[in-house]
């Protein structure tokens, strides 16, 4: 607490990464401890109690996000869309957490597409021209003309809608990373994949720092001396655009 107070008053100079590393050390100790008594916020709690409620998130220290602000982003990044207690679908923002990039144009398109919602199914009908075009493509992944997994079609319109919503770019602006490993049929202006499992990208922020309209969020450190993965956003009145998604340094 004295360390954070001194930093806030400008008595010591520390980078956000150093503050996060300090908070990680505190949290490592807390996870190995049992809370027996607390008077936080003027309320007496007699333990043992859940330590998760008392972890250090740097909430409200300087320009760090408050816990309420962090929770807003955690909710926005949930991999499943819900209505009440009902799961209604996959959150499309999850597709942006499946690869690392310094700018969204450099995301891995194959990984981005793997669990992206909004696809249409293609039947493995040997008489269907679209299916025939798929089986004739050099990237057709199966022996013969039988597809043992679902075939998903992603129209350019669907892909561009998601990219524009969360990054402000379109598929035409992508660098091409991962595109050469995904089937694209020009006559249908669509990409295809064959996933049958479910593994959306995850990002659970535990720290956040606001600098003007730019927000950087960090996940929990893996404990190997590096910070957690970092997600940088540009906030706007109608939401945010993702600027980068980078591994812990």
Strand content: 15-25%
What structural class do you assign from the helix and strand content?
alpha+beta
Helix segment tally: 6
Please tell me how large the radius of gyration is.
Answer: 22 Å
Average of the residue pLDDT scores: 86
**Secondary structure: helix percent:** 10-25%
What does this structure look like?
The protein has 249 residues and is of the alpha+beta class. The chain is 24% helix and 24% strand. It is built from 6 helices and 12 strands. A hairpin with a 4-residue loop joins β7 (183-185) and β8 (190-193). The longest helix is centred in the first third of the chain and has 16 residues, at 16-31. The protein is elongated, with a radius of gyration of 22 Å. The chain starts with a helix and ends with a strand. Mean pLDDT is 86; it is low at 7-12.
Brief account:
The chain is of the alpha+beta class.
